[in-house]
Write the structure tokens for this entry.
Amino acid sequence: MGCFSKLRIVQGKNGFHEIRAVVLSILLFFLFFPSIHSSPHNNTLIFLSSVDMITFDPGIVTDRYSSQIITNIFEGLTRYKKDSPDIEPCLAESWAIGDNGKRWVFRIRKGVKFHNGEILNASAVVNSFNTKLSDKKKYKEWNSFYTYLKIVRKVDDHIVEFILSKPYSPFLFQLASPKSTIIAPSSYFGGRFIPSGTGPFRFGGRKEGKFVKIIRNDLYWGKPAFLSNVIFKVVKDQKWRILQMRNSMADVTLLESMGGYNEKENQSKLKIVSVHSAAISYLAFNTRKGPFRDKRMRRAVAHLLRKDAMVKKIFQRSAFNASSPVPPGMFGHNSKQRDYKFDVGEAKKLKIEAGYNSDVEVSLYYGANSQNSENIAAVLVRAAKKIGINIKRNPVSFSELLNIGYDKHDMLMMGWVGDIPDADVYLYPNFTEHSGSLNKSGYINPRLSNLIEKARMTSDKKVRKSLYFESQEILHNDLPWIPLYYPNELLLLNKNVKNLSIQPLSFLNFRDVFFDNKKVVEE
């Protein structure tokens, strides 16, 4: 085929399951389950979540809870291999690369339908991308991840071409992220987003603040899921989540800490799986105005923290100390970085050198309803007071926290989860200035920006790694962030839950899950 001439071909696995021509309709309904529980008489898995999801739209998703559900409803052109950070074909059977990495051509899998009966073809893929490319206000964060993407066009019914303004090395990983999943064209009609994808589960209902239900897609192009349903039930208090798990009223949940859980007491029914996540929690400084414009003031705070001891005390096994903005396990992580030494005398000296001889009043914003955040905030308040920095605590809602820019705070504590296992998605959005930037510190360093841009454009892994190492050394020196901790995913699950797959970015894939001793009843 002409469009593949002079291109390097990267061939994926072929084949798909033939799908009967049955048109499905998405039913948007709101159900109330007075007693949702797992029993030996059904094939429903109950997942307990500490918070409700925010959106079904992959283009605007920023939180992990929404992404967890999205990854089971929608699919991308590529995906991660099971229990691996490597990429394999998904809705694209194969792809080719040309023009020094600026041209990508994908062959779309045939015989696939969306949950609402629409056909997956080149037009649907183009529509899914161009809808977000054309609305940079609504999809500003999506566009910030696709800064180099300029054109997405149909070549024929099952061939799509992507044109980038510059080479972008992690492009295939980006296509596997929840943000890049392919959406049925009619999902955007009528001003209200209707979640219709191609995944192994389809949308089954939602009661805001209570639950989301997804149902097995029996016409899935691959092997259909074993589970009939997965219900994501909102239970904010960890004690109640643990109690429901102990009483066999639920099957899977995430623990925020080991508080309230007795392993010996529960080991007959439940087990804990600990997994390194792709997340980092950080303390950002306002580097544009206020006392923390001065690097010496930022370093003064860093010298006040016994961070490793703080993280161990607050989190036990559920987190470990962070020394870099790029978590371990992500490509480009610099494991040689170390914390600033605890030294109150040095902190006082730096504050005076910065011209602050008297007390300083500063603000700290962080997410409300999180005991862990409250505990860290309390440590920060006590530590800063030793050198005359008085911190006013401002706990706010999660949605408000997401929208706070560097113009409002002196310090801000929150988390970040990468969409791909690559340093680019930790450094580029948070430490450069561009359209849709998520930079919470206002920190801009032209040398750093140049290194990050250069790393994006080279395909040589050794060169990329050295550029990322140098970038992290600059950030360690200038300190727009103090990396606080890397959360471990403490997955508490019923021992009867088998074959649960955890993706590289900590999302749970329920496609292959089954119960060891539950009778399967088709619904």
Q: What stands out?
A: The domain at 2-231+496-515 is CATH 3.40.190.10 (D-Maltodextrin-Binding Protein; domain 2). Confidence is low (pLDDT under 50) at residues 1-41, 519-523. The CA atoms of residues 290 and 471 lie 25 Å apart. Residues 461-478 form the longest helix (18 residues).
